[in-house]
Design brief:
- This protein has 9 helices and 6 strands, in the order E-H-E-H-E-H-E-H-E-H-H-E-H-H-H.
- The protein has 246 residues and is α/β, with parallel strands linked by helices.
- A 6-stranded parallel beta sheet has the order 3-2-1-4-5-6, sandwiched between helices.
Length: 246
């Protein structure tokens, strides 16, 4: 599954799942632009990719802010070329009973998790249309498949990502662009470790008796980004260790 000659953007690539995706895409030959709000995290990932022999640049900025997205895209094109692979991974989470979710908290969640992918995709899809080839992979969540308590705003935002995926898949189905989404299950990441969750205890309840790893998601993304997945679009590729079966 060579990605040689392709340019990939990975949002939220500074740590966790995004960091793993950047490494796996680069290992397959893609030149990777690591977009992240955390400039130091983006540079850490990009430097590690380069140290491993790959090509990567760090592009700091807010993927949920239109002017920042435009600036990041301009720099990416200038340094690496037109973008053919987009992984909308940047996101946030929170745990709060529905009755306690404020309008500001709701807007922030939707802004980061759903408006962000909208803005980034809108900015980069012209590159793919011009090339007649593109791969868009959105990172959603198994919580949007099953529901989750005290996460209504998060679940709603990720459900929107799934809907956006399907709409774009249909719109670009004859343009050489595929659009799919990967809903991770319980993955051991820094973001999860920061939450009010006993990671080891929850992992023991999983069908496989372990949490997933960021690389588990990254390998699925690499397949969807490849030429071998050219007949796969609008699909859900669940990486959840059997937590949710469809």
């Amino acid at each position: 599954m060579s990605l040689q000659g392709k340019v990939a953007v990975v949002t939220g690539g500074g740590r966790g799942i995004g960091e793993a995706i950047a490494h796996v895409l680069a290992a397959r030959g893609a030149a990777v632009a690591v977009w992240d709000l955390d400039a130091a995290g983006a540079e850490k990932t990009a430097a590690a990719v380069r140290e491993a022999g790959g090509t990567a640049i760090a592009v700091p900025g807010d993927a949920a802010e239109a002017s920042a997205v435009a600036a990041a895209a301009t720099r990416t094109r200038a340094e690496l070329g037109p973008v053919g692979i987009l992984v909308n991974n940047a996101g946030t989470t929170a745990y709060q009973p529905f009755a306690d979710i404020s309008e500001d908290a709701w807007d922030r969640m939707i802004g980061i998790n759903l408006k962000g992918p909208f803005l980034v995709t809108k900015e980069l899809v012209p590159d793919m249309l011009a090339a007649g080839w593109g791969r868009i992979v959105n990172i959603s969540s198994s919580s949007a498949q099953t529901g989750a308590p005290a996460m209504a705003h998060y679940v709603a935002s990720k459900g929107g990502v799934i809907g956006l995926t399907r709409a774009l898949a249909v719109e670009y189905i004859d343009k050489g662009i595929t659009v799919n989404h990967v809903p991770p299950g319980f993955i051991d990441t820094p973001l999860v470790r920061q939450g009010p969750v006993d990671v080891d205890a929850v992992a023991a309840t999983m069908p496989m008796k372990r949490a997933g790893l960021p690389d588990d998601v990254a390998y699925a993304v690499a397949y969807l980004a490849s030429e071998e997945a050219s007949y796969v679009t609008g699909q859900t590729v669940s990486v959840n260790g059997g937590r949710h079966l469809v």
